[in-house]
Structure formats: structure tokens, C-alpha cells
Amino acid sequence: MIRITHNMMKNDVVYNIETHQENLDRLQNNLSTGKKVRIPRENPISATNAMLYRTRIEEIKKFIDNIEEGEARLNFAENGIRSIVDIFHRLEELVVQGANGIYSKEDREKIAVEVDELLKEVVQIANSKFKGESIFAGYQTNIEPFEVLKTKPAFADREVITKVLYKGDIGKNLRELEQQEYAPVNLAGNVLFWATNEVVIGNQDVSNYVANKNHKIRIDGKEILIQSGDNINAIIEKINNANIPVRASLRDNQFVIETTSPHELWIEDIEGGTFFQDIGLKIANQRPNEFANNVQKIGYNIFDVIIKIRDDLWKNDVASLGSEDLNNLQHSLNNLLTGLGEIGARSARFLSVKKRLNMNEVDMTDILSKTENIDIAKTVMDLQMLEYIHRSALAVGARIIRPTLIDFLR
């Protein structure tokens, strides 16, 4: 049998009263802050989960910002391309008009003036910038991607654009849409503004070429390993099996590389290799889209197409206008429309991911609220019940803890 003393009863009452006061303080603080957990030690699991949910919500907001910025860039690029497409539709009308035999040489010269103005507008759009950054220059966003060269041809009455060179690169500017999920927000100018397939033909016999060391080449951004002892046929096979839109071959023992879809070739020796220099295609320190002077390069970008149309109008070359020029114009237009389709596909993906992230943010916010926010009605009821119990405990304590003669003698 346990002996219950007055001191034990008093200690129990004091302990219960202090516990009630602590719980009252906690509930009052919960009501004033609206949170279940003020400090991690009150509920470590809930505190940890709340931090994880809050981190995820901030992460989602950052991804949504990335997507919206990427959408703005894509929309800006799309508007520019659509403007160029409209210009090419006008060029089609002018070419058909110029190829019509009822027009005189003077009429075609007047049409050439309009074509020249349209050329300037296309160049301006191609060099356009979004937030101070070039949108068609690859990684080189701080430069104008297209350099204009001007001369005065014999058949023209003034200085005009005679060549437009791409000075950007083939880089893709990526935005993170989700964890480890990236998408490009640009189109490189060497692809978008190209009209025909490009063919590069060497000028020396390479039938006996054999690599004397291990090294690498890079074609359209894809690295290809050339091993010591590889002959020209083995290298050609490696290029053709590299899953890139180019094809290499030998013609009359000369090395030939050509694109299989319209774009400007981008080839370079890397990591100390000299393959393209050894076979005479390039000289040291050339840009990837530049070749040795004696190398034959065949292919048009869209600026070349417009320049040729203008020049043929000035030269009164009706035959070229009605055949080659019209054909090149259609190839240019097809490539621009392909670029528009690619932008549309990316925009659709951005929209889909943003919709999913917005739903995730709502879900995470709801879970966070349930994890750290109080149920006000329930908490008020708990507080009122605890206040009633606390008052009862105080009343019981007043009866149990009575003053004695000893208390007065102290």
C-alpha cells in the first residue's frame, strides 16, 4: 500500500498547474502566430517537413520565372521570324513580277530598289536584341550575329550589301524548367537563316591520308575521335555514323563534306588535332564556319538569296529570276517555317510545364498550410477547455494547499 502524504498531494497539484500554464502559453502563442510549431523542438518532424515544402515552393516559383522569361524570348524571336516570313512572301511577289516578260529593264531596276530595302530590314531583324542580348547569335549574345559587307557592284548605282556573314556560334541558351530538365530559348543563326544545303569540297588529294596521332574533331557540336592509324575512309565512316546532319565522301580523291539539312557547316579541330588543316579545308585559328581560300564552298544563306534576286533584277536576268531565284526563295521560306514550328513546339512545352508547376505550387502550399498552420476553431476550443481545467486545478489547489501553523512560524 502506498502512503499518500499532504506533501505529495501538494507537489502533484503544483506540477499539474505548471503543466497547464505551459500548455496555455503554447496555445495562446499558436493563436497569435497562426502556426502549430514555433520552434523545431516542439515537433521536429513537422518543422522539417515544413522547411522542405517551403523550399519546394520557392523552387517552383523560380522555375516559373525561368519559363516566363523563356516564353518572352521565344515570343520575341517568333515575332521576328514572322516578320521575315512576311517579307519573303513579298519577295515572292516581286520575283514573279520581275520574271514576267512584260516588264522592262527599268521596271526591274525599280523592283531591285525595293528588294534592297527588304534585305536591310531582314538584316536588322536578324540582329535584333531582347533585353540587350542578341537572340540569334547562340552563346555570343553580346555581339551582332550578322556582319554586313558593302561594295558598289558594276551594275548598281550605289554602294549596297553584297555579303552577310554569321559571327555568332551554334550554342543553345538553356533555361531550367524543372529539376534536371532544360530547354533552349534561342535558335542559332547558322541554322535559322540558311536556305540550302552547304557543300565544302577540298582541293587536294587525300586518298593516302593516315592519322599520325589520336585527336578529335568537332562537327556541328558533335565530337568525333580520330585514332592514330585511321585512314581517310575510316574517318569518313566515323563522320557518317556520328548521327549529325552531314555526310562526308571522296570525289576524285578530294574530301567532300555536305549538310543533309539546310544549315551552315560548323567544323573545327580540337584538343590539338589538325585533321581539317592537314587535308587543306582550314587554316589555323579560323572560325568553325570559315574555310581556306582555295576550298570550294557551295550554298546560300537567306541573305545570299535576297542579294542574288536584287542583283538579277539589276542585271535584267529574267531566266534566273523565274527558276533558280524562285526555287532558292522557297527553300529559304521552308527553313524559316521550320524554325517557327520549332519555336511553337518549345512554347507548347513551356506552357505545359508551367501549368504543371502552378498546380504543384497549389498542392505544396496546401500541404504546407496543413503542416504548420493551426485549425483556429479547434485551437480556440482547446484553449477554452484548458482554461476551464486550469481554473479547476487552481480551485483544487487552494483547498489542498492550506496555510498551517508552520507556515506562519516561518
Question: Would you give an account of this structure?
Answer:
- The chain is α+β, with helices and mostly antiparallel strands and about 400 residues long.
- It folds into two domains: about 55-195 and about 300-360, f41 fragment of flagellin, N-terminal domain (Up-down Bundle), CATH 1.20.1330; about 200-295, Alpha-Beta Plaits (2-Layer Sandwich).
- About 55% of the residues lie in helices and about 15% in strands.
- The protein is built from ten helices and 13 strands.
- The protein has helices at about 5-35, 45-100, 105-125, 190, 230-240, 275-280, 300-315, 320-370, 375-400, 405-410, and strands at about 130, 135, 145-150, 160-165, 175-180, 180-185, 200, 215-220, 220-225, 245-250, 255-260, 265-270, 295-300.
- Strands 10-11-7-13 form a four-stranded antiparallel beta sheet. Strands 9-8-12 form a three-stranded antiparallel beta sheet. It has a two-stranded antiparallel sheet with strand order 1-2.
- Strand 1 and strand 2 form a beta hairpin.
- Helix 1 (about 5-35) runs antiparallel to helix 9 (about 375-400).
- The longest helix has about 55 residues, at about 45-100.
- It is elongated.
- The model has no long low-confidence stretch (mean pLDDT about 85).
